[in-house]
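Lecture notes, unit on binding sites. The following record was shown on slide 14. It pairs a sequence with calcium ion.
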Amino acid sequence: PVALWLDCDTGHDDAFAILLSAQCPALRLLGISTIYGNAPLVKTTQNTRSILRAIGREDVPVYAGASKPFCRPAASAPDIHGESGLDGTTVLPEPGAPERTDMSAMLAMYKALIAEPPKTAWLVATGCLTNAALLFNTFPDVVDHIAGLTIMGGAVGGGFTNAPMGSLEGQGERFGNWTPFAEFNIYIDPESAQSIFSNPVLAAKTTVAPLDLTHQMLATPEICLELLYGFDAKVDDGTEASVLRVLFNQILTFFAKTYADVFGLTEGPPLHDPLAVAMVVFPDLFDDKGGERFAIKVVIDGEHGVDEIARTTSQCGRTILTPLKAGQAGVRVPRGLDAGLIWRILDL
Ligand code: BDR
Ligand code: CA
């Protein structure tokens, strides 16, 4: 199996990333580091441990990482994920195994990744990039050593072009989710994101799942039902779903409601985070048009908008993609995916 370390801010969609990383037979989960984001660090760490308990994988070590970005106050997303970061469940167990405190999350990530044979292990980031930036800047040798990095983050817009800054031409009116320009994971710590995308060796082994891709994976009511009973189940009136399937169904139900309330997206919520895991193990399910690669620049100038007006005009956290010439090394940002097959691999 392919070794990976998961860095997450558990969250509704992060819970599915944990499920896939911990249960997919083709993967070997080395450990999990947590980060502030969907909720404060204490809560995302507790949620992570609860999910691991629910799926019977408390053997996976959990280390709490950064509680805030370097240059900005910590943000969270209670409108989307509730106060706990994982609201809406009635069957989520309390964590059992304690979190690990024998070393820092950064050191635990380093030790686990460097202990694997060269160019075999992956880091998967489904929250903001503070922990990852700390790791790669403190231990640059890990950049060479790993097989790669996958990230859920960013928003491209219709273009996949090198649109001039400030221009929304060809990109629709809104392509971010936290601001019209920016996706949440990049917005809340743009400096860390930029430190990763501006490292050429690291960028060349990075794959990104931006909103443009994750919005091709909507958890429609039909998909939710398939996941509740299993895709191949023959359901009759008396069939009962397992507690684990009920838990993940409640997670999707809450996420669907907030996406409908906040974004007016009534078809179903996009299941962002497990895509960053799927990219490690099934890269061919993602279409990069025969090998397109990009340079990514993150807009970091500008305060975070403190009021509604600033929040709609600031471009802070925007990811600007420049397409590279064929054969040039850069970030892989697939434009399409095989949603049908990916839903099936989530049916664990
Ligand atoms: C990202 O932000 C969080 O709310 C989700 O968990 C996901 O990682 C989507 O913008
Ligand atoms: Ca997340």
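Take-home: Residues 161-171 have pLDDT under 50 and may be disordered.
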